[in-house]
Each structure stands twice: as structure tokens, then as C-alpha cells.
Structures
1.
Amino acid sequence: MAVIEAIETVYLTSAAASVTFSSLGSYEHLQIRTSGRHNSSGGAGASIYIRFNGDTGSNYSFEDFASYNGNNSNADAYTGQAFVYGGGRITGPLTPDAENFATSIIDILDYRNANKNTTMLQMSGVVDDYQSNSFIWFGAGLWDNTAAVTSILLYPPQGSFVEDTTMTLYGLNSAN
């Protein structure tokens, strides 16, 4: 039987520029579930940026597919970044309702394996974004480094995560 265990939950009681998970445990894979919003003056929805082990080098890549209202879609690819560009989605001040937080599930696969690069998958959604659209987003990222992941930094591109943003780190082991 597969096992999923909550490792740590962060509930923000005030704005925070970032969230770091550094007690990752010994699992096969990690998963981060977020419900988030930011306070940047830009105001629209934004990505959650991710860095592993404090690495600020230009060795992250990401590809994504997004859809607005189920019919407007686009795909993007980013290479040579100093962070995983699309580690999930958060809403901003222009989103109509202050209680409208975007949700994301981020899987970090085989994070302790020092014989390969670290990969991740994410899916995100929000019912009513800043243009009154529903929004879904899927992506895959790569950290071009074979080091085992020992810490995960999550942060918005500008501003801070707002109060009531929640992030939970889970560890996953498959059946033997």
C-alpha cells in the first residue's frame, strides 16, 4: 500500500516573502499542496517560484500549458532560469474576491537520488482570476543538478505571500 504522510504545514498569520521546507524526511517523492495569494502591486495571478538547496544558478527549466475559461490556451518553455518558474499558482490583489486563493499540487520526484537531475510536476487552478476567468495550469520542471534535495524555497516573483496562505509538505512512499 502506498503511504502519504504530512511532514509540515505552514499557515501564514502575516505576510511572508518566502516559505522554506528543510526537514524533508526519507521518502521516495515529495508533494507540496498550496492555497495561496500574493500582495504584489502588479496584482494579477503569479507563479510560485521554487529553488532547491539555495541554488541560485541558471540551471532550472520549466514547460507549461495553461487554459483560461477552457478555450484560450497557451504553452511556454523557460530554460536557464535561476528558479523553477512555474511551481504552482497564486492569485493577487486584482483577483475580485480577497478570499479567492489559487490552489496547487506540486510533485517533486525521486528527490534524494543523487544519480539524476530532480524533476517536478505541478497542476494549479483558480475559479475566478483577475479577468473573471477560470484558470488551470499544468507544468513540468527540471533542476539541472544531481545533488539530493535538502531544502525547498518557495516565493512569489514580487511582494509576499499574504496571511492565510497555506502550504503543506507531504512525503510519499510506494508499496513494496
2.
Amino acid sequence: MTVNPPLNRSTRLQLLTEELSRRILILDGGMGTEIQKLRLAEKDYRGERFASWPRDLKGNNDLLILTRPSAIAEIHTAYLDAGADIIETNTFNSTRVAMADYGMEELAAELCREGARLARACCDAAEARDGKPRYVAGVLGPTNRTASISP
């Protein structure tokens, strides 16, 4: 099988548009549930970089992009191997508002950037294996704060 070199962004976007006009593309599944299956401990979330962080970090699934990227890559790869055309970044809570729970507001941009980079690397590896283009969807969920409280 001949494997093509990685596509540039504009070519990939054009190919995505063409693919969507021809068929239904498959999106990956839940990241949070797959992370829960790993049964990670506090130290797993901390890694070396955040070993002495003054707050609990367990449950900050987005932080795993930095502290356990191989675990996140394995989840992405499993979805790709199962047939996903599009994988979502592990950045559901990578906003300054959500990261404030952990005192990590300053990490929001880094998490988004590294989450996209990791997902793209997983897609590129899958493409290199079989030549089938894969796509990354950046994800941000709702914040964990109420925007307003109406009387």
C-alpha cells in the first residue's frame, strides 16, 4: 500500500468537505468515560510537573494531556482503530473558567494547543498505517459556572 505524505491544512479541509458530501463520517466516543476506566490516582494526574501543586488534581482529565499524554494517545488510537474518522481533543474543560477550580487558569491555552497537537499526531500515525485521512475536532464544553442567576 502506498502511503501519502501528511496533508496540509487547506488540503485537509477541502478533503473533509468532499468526504462529508459523499458519506457520513464517524466521530469518536466519550473521552471522560474512557479515562474513568483507567482508574487513575492523584499522582497520575500530577505527574512530575505538578507534583507539588497546592490543590487536588484528580479529575482534571484535560491535565492528562500534559501529565499522561500516552494514556490520552492510547484512547485516541483505540477510537481511530475502531473506525473513527474524526477524533475530538481532550480539552472539554480547557477554559480559564473551568481550570480555576484547580488554580490552573494559565494553562488553558497550553492545554488546547497540546491537546490538538496530540490528537493530530494520533491521526497522522493512523493515516501513515493505512493511508485513510483522519480529522481532529477541537472541543470545549460548557463552563462549570452559571453565567447569570435570574430572580
3.
Amino acid sequence: MFAMSQTGGRLPQGKRYLKYPFKEALNFANIAVFRLPDGEEYLPRFEKALVEYISPVKRERENAGRVKLKGGQAYVLIPACDAPGTEGEVYLSIYLSCQLRDVSVKRVVHPLDKNTAKAAI
């Protein structure tokens, strides 16, 4: 199980509060889970056959999903905004039904990604 959360609009922005549904703070977004081809660390290209799960696109603080994955296989979770060029800050929570020692989790940035935020890899 996993959840992608955006920073909410309930906290004040400067000296004012935003009105629900917090259009200024929340983006239309979703999250997808892809199975990586054997030996790959990055998703080489979008292939429908590699899709394990795609959440609905919605403008809410949290977009969660649940998918049963096979052991011994690598997967990548990709949060995305609906509109091209839109950026936003997200937090990703992953909930596992197995021992943590049986899982390897790491953050990767595709080599072609400009990584303008200089995010740690």
C-alpha cells in the first residue's frame, strides 16, 4: 500500500488562509506503479504492459493505492502532475506487509531528468 501526499492548503499561506478546494496549493496528480524489466534501474520508456497500478487523477491532498506485487521483482513508483510542466512537492509513504529486511527501497532520478531541484538521490 502506498500514499502520495501533497502539501495541503489548510495552513496559512503568508497571512491569509486559502479557500477549499485549495486550488492554489493542490495540483491534479496521480501515482503509477511500473514493473521494471530485468536488470533495469530506470523505466526505459512507458509501456502499458509494465503497468501494475495507476491511481485516478485527482486534486486532493492524498492519493493512495494498494497493489499486490511479486517478490524478486523491481518496481518503480512515479508520482506525476496532470498538466505538463507542472511541478509540486509530494511525500510518498509506503506500507509493506513483509519484513523490511526483505525489501530494498531507494530513490532514483532518471539520467535524462534535469533534476533542477537538485534533489538528493
4.
Amino acid sequence: MIKQDIVNRVAEKTGLPKSRVEMAVDAFFEAMKRALKNGYRIELRGFGVFSVRPRKRGIGRNPKTGAVVPIPEGKTIRFKPGKELR
């Protein structure tokens, strides 16, 4: 499912114009991006929790060449599904 599918389904369910629904969906995703970028945890009851976690430094391999590639420390986003999604 892509963003446009979400817009179409919300528009069908609510009867609102797709242009307004698309603005709302874009605003929702933008707010989520900003919150995660600032290190906040996002909890959507009944759906799940998005959180930012530190990622350890490590060593990986390029699957094409087999060369060793260092993986730097960083942050990653984790999603833990809620009870209703399990």
C-alpha cells in the first residue's frame, strides 16, 4: 500500500475531497517525521509505537563484491505493533 492508497481509502470512508485528505495525510506524516527526528516516541493506541533507537557500530559486507564495509553508529526507527495488529 502506498500513500495514494491511504488517501483514496480515507476519502471513500469520510466523503471528503481527495485534495483535502491528501493535505491531512501529508501533515500527519510530516509531524511524525519531525517528532522522530527530534527523538520523540510516537504511540498510536491500537496500532503501535514508533521509537528512535541507537544503532551500534558494526561491520557489513557488500553482497556484490564481498568487500568488508564499516557501518557507522547512528539512529534507527523501530516499530512495535500494538495488540490489535499482532
